[in-house]
Amino acid sequence: MGNYTANADSEDERLYQFLKGKGLPVSWQVWDDESIEWSQFDAIIIKSPWDYFDKIDAFYTWLNKVEDAGCKVLNPVKTLRWNADKLYFKDMQAEGVTIVPTVWLEQGSTFDAEKAFAELGSEKIIVKPRVSGGAKNTFALTINEALEKTSEINQLLQHEGFLAQPFLEEIKTDGEWSFIFFNGTYSHTVLKTAKPGDFRVQHFFGGTVHTPIPPANLLATAQTIVDKFAKDCLYARVDGVALNNELVLMELELIEPFLFLSTSENSLERYYEALIAQLK
Q1: Directed axis angle between helix 113-120 and helix 143-157, to 10°?
Q2: pLDDT tens by residue, 21-78
Q3: Residue from 191, 194, 187, 195 nearest 176 by CA
């Protein structure tokens, strides 16, 4: 499951019990359990494989396995494979989606802190893996801190690709929006804020969650993103920050997003209805 809080675990249990209560023959399975014959299931719902980024090669192999077996996977295998690597930002940017400016750090390359800061035009940057989750190996750095961390980052670059982005103060001051969709249809929104002195909005780092009515233009942008890239998905979460009243994409979460089901009335019912539509 990964190092998530009881709050995250309870969402899974709540959803599981709700679907069972609806009469669906659901069961928990672990994706990398070699003893499971996946073709026995009518559908495989991906919910919380929070360790996939630690075992990415095995995860890709497993995706190939269930695809070759003809299993129905929600979300679709091709989508999961595409969404696992942040290179998907390039595809989205090519389609007109505004993403946070990004410097790509290829595996085996050398991190040049001064060059990265110059390209991003920022006094502080975020450096994180292309395949990641839960803020693992994520650094928020000033230029001096980046110079001090260069050796550590270079060691990490020997094993995988990274990316660098400007640190957006708006995440600390205004928060990060998450728009949740089921079957391409909007369900609900949360605004995540970091605890004082931190930049990570995840609840397991002390972040808090709010449920304001989202600005219509931000929601419209999130809907456009889902229409282009996740319309056939059981679930999708669009994470972004408002810059100059425009939604700038931070992540399109299509593999293992926490769905904040407890924050919105009837969200479990909407999830269920979307699932039934997918199973037809």
Answers
A1: 120
A2: 999 999 999 999 999 999 999 999 999 999 999 999 999 999 999 999 999 999 999 9
A3: 191
**136 vs 205: CA distance, rounded Å:** 12
Is the Cβ–Cβ distance between 254 and 236 less than 8 Å? yes
Which amino acid would we find at residue 243?
A: L
Indicate the SS3 state at residue 173: helix
CB-side exposure of 271: number of CA atoms within 13 Å?
Answer: 27
What residue ranges define each of the domains in the chain, with the CATH number in brackets? 6-83 (no CATH), 103-167 (3.30.1490.20), 170-279 (3.30.470.20)
**pLDDT tens digits, residue range 219-255?**
999 999 999 999 999 999 999 999 999 999 999 999 9
Strand ranges for 130-227 from DSSP E? 139-142, 162-166, 176-182, 185-193, 208-210
- Kind of pairing between the strands at 73-74 and 44-45: parallel
Residue 15 has pLDDT above 50, yes or no: yes
Question: What's the DSSP call for residue 187?
Answer: E
Q: Indicate the pTM of the whole model.
A: 0.91
